[in-house]
Amino acid sequence: MTNSDLTPDLKYVRTEMTHGISPPRGEHGLANWLRTNLFATPVDAALSVLAILVLVWLLPPMINWLFVNAVWTGADRSVCTTAAQGGIQPEGWSGACWAFVDAKFQQFLYGRYPIDERWRVKLVAVLFVLALVPLLIPKVPHKGLNALVFFFVFPIVAFFLLVGGWFGLPYVETPLWGGLLVTLVLSFVGIAVSLPLGILLALGRRSQLPVIKLFSVIFIEMVRGVPLVTVLFMASVMLPLFLPPGVTFDKLLRALIGVALFASAYMAEVVRGGLQAIPKGQYEGADSLGLNYWHKTALIVLPQALKLVIPGIVNTFIGLFKDTSLVYIIGMFDLLGIVRQNFADANWASPQTPATGLIFAGFVFWIFCFSMSRYSMFMERRLDTSHKN
Amino acid sequence: MASQDITESGRESPGVSWLYDPKIRGIIYQAVTFIAIIGLIWWIVGNTVANLQRANIASGFGFLNGRAGFDISQSPIAYSSDATYGRALLVGLLNTLNVAVIGIVTASILGFLIGIGRLSRNWLVRKICLVYVEIFRNVPPLLVIFFWYFGVLSVLPQARESISLPFSSYLNNRGFFFPVAVWGENAGLIGIALLIGLALSFLVFRWARKRQMATGQIFPVYRTAAALIVGLPLLAFVVTGFPLSFDYPQLGTFNLSGGTQIRPEFLALFLALSFYTAAFIAEIVRAGILGVSRGQTEASYALGLRPGQAMRLVVIPQALRIIIPPLSSQYLNLTKNSSLAIAIGYPDLVAVGGTILNQTGQSIEIVAIWMVIYLGLSLITSGLMNWFNAKMALVER
């Protein structure tokens, strides 16, 4: 039944739909995109032209250096140096020396960890991924058990595997560790220690008990006021002085203590921000339900506070991950340190080596930090229960 | 009646011990913490004293008067290896302040430009700024320093084949060389003229503001101030007979002579800190501008302000309130990150202190000096920023 049957005499009422008129020319397509996004105003147009000029000036040489002129394989420095520098490349050549990264790749990963024992590091890496990935995917069940495995069982297993000396595994002393292995060990322990310690310090700073509050404030402000380099110096030079004669600490352990204490002070401030943002009614509501302090904190306050400060917590993690590179200054060789150390290798020294090695190390650091920040954005959206759009 | 029963029985009833009184519990907790921490400190101090006695190290700050015996590659004040340890530390402190102040200025300018660029309507500018921020936020600062030092500045040509830049300046692997201005006689007059210009423009600014408040008439303050600040010294320059000449760097066979040299260590540290911190400042600026609600901009358009005016008079003053607190912590971070200088041999406070520590073994004193100085710098910076913040803060009834 059509409309015309119902209203036969209304001749001016349209009986079928018309097609929409297509937008005017220039309101869609590439030309419109260019006009609104690049050439909206004269200033915009000038900026665009300037930006294009800068890109044309920068990008082709960069791509040339990184890929086109780069050397991918080779046995020693001769492939990455010009004839005048004692190599095989023509005069004026410049390009990335990926052959250097290729030759040193194992060292960048493991440091001087004995070659026959490297399967242990690989096994730990596999266990790490197996324990971490289910923890990161929200849909996988048994989060509590998984967290227990990741934060308590895995570190113990990893410790025995990496250090050795038990169950017939040869002992590998920590000065032999290096490269990405040290970076990841430092960051993992730093993260696992600094989060609980930071929460405790933040609670201490918000505590009603003046003595506990005072100690927390002194610790947090002292650590936040000084650079990590001095904290590491303190851990490496002064810690042996603080201990009874004869007691010695492993160098890696000292760096770990320094990094973890430093990060926990920053973590404490982040968590305190979250605690302060929880309305007073939540505390009072918990009190009126008869919960004691720890129940109130663990069941009511912290779940809300930590959710609020996820970006800050992950930022602190990223900062900690980047800061592990500073252990180079107290004579340890993490990823950046081992790359830096290899510049001096006479077999590979060339004008192109440092830049290539650093770009490689930067890329590795970038991947880790960037994925952490993207994951935190994902979690933030997932946990967002507010009603704002 | 019932409530009275509860309050009375709460403490007096026989089943509840005083152990459950929160006040008494609090005192017990605090006493335990206090005793534990004091005990720990006591133990550490005892161990340290025993260790120092065994190592035959005299504690105290007397060593600061000893002869340093090492050279410092760059120093803003007179220093030789015969100077004292105290003076060497002072040189280190000045070098730290030097790179921190210049770095803060550059990082702020760069960061504000990139932060505004991230909000640009221009797609290309927006993307370039995004790529910049994402690259520099996600790599360690030490790596950026190494990149500038080993990857860029060390592979520059030798002095003989220096890259020549405009204004007779040269760039080679020994640093950046540029002409230095040599002021002739009566040049002090130009400085005095500049000071007078600054003072006059300040007075004009205050007078114009008062008049605008009272009558609504606008006085062209910026143009007057520019004329005063540039014009007066220029006038003095002409009157005193152009007392200015330049000492140009001369290209010799092995090195450059004359002019001023900026060493690659300083240049690498300065560039790395500025580029790294600028990425963080850019994000802070972006968040600050986005934090001002759109209604503010629309309302100022409704009042008839032009986009530039709306930005300058309405959006930026409000955005600054959001920007300043995190910005000040970035400034502190930059100052603290300048201690990475030790990795490339720029003689800052930590590098000089490390050398002294190795020579004398006075580790406790050196670490204490570091802590006091860095804590002091932090307090001064945060004090300044708090003052500025209070000036910019919302004035409420």
Write the layout of secondary structure elements.
The complex is a heterodimer of chains A (389) and B (397).
Chain A: H1 3-6, H2 29-37, H3 42-68, H4 98-110, H5 118-136, H6 143-163, H7 179-205, H8 210-225, H9 228-242, H10 251-277, H11 280-288, H12 293-308, H13 310-323, H14 335-342, H15 353-383
Helix pairs in contact in A: 4-7, 4-14, 5-6, 7-8, 7-10, 7-13, 7-14, 8-10, 9-10, 10-12, 10-13, 11-12, 13-15, 14-15
Chain B: H1 2-12, H2 22-55, H3 85-117, H4 123-137, H5 141-153, E1 163-165, E2 169-172, E3 175-178, E4 180-183, H6 188-215, H7 221-239, E5 244-247, E6 250-251, E7 256-257, E8 260-262, H8 264-291, H9 294-302, H10 307-337, H11 349-360, H12 363-392
Describe the structure.
The complex is a heterodimer of chains A (about 400) and B (about 400). Chain A has about 400 residues and is mostly helical. Chain A folds into two domains: about 25-70, no CATH class; about 100-385, MetI-like fold. Chain A has 15 helices and no strands. Chain A is flat, with a radius of gyration of 30 Å. The relative contact order of chain A is 0.09. The mean pLDDT of chain A is about 85. Chain B has about 400 residues and is α+β, with helices and mostly antiparallel strands. Chain B folds into three domains: about 20-55; about 90-175 and about 260-390, MetI-like fold, CATH 1.10.3720.10; about 180-245, no CATH class. In chain B, helix 3 (about 85-115) packs across helix 8 (about 265-290). Residues about 1-10 of chain B have low confidence and may be disordered. At the A-B interface, helix 3, helix 8, helix 9, helix 13 and helix 15 of A face helix 2, helix 4, helix 5, helix 11 and helix 12 of B.
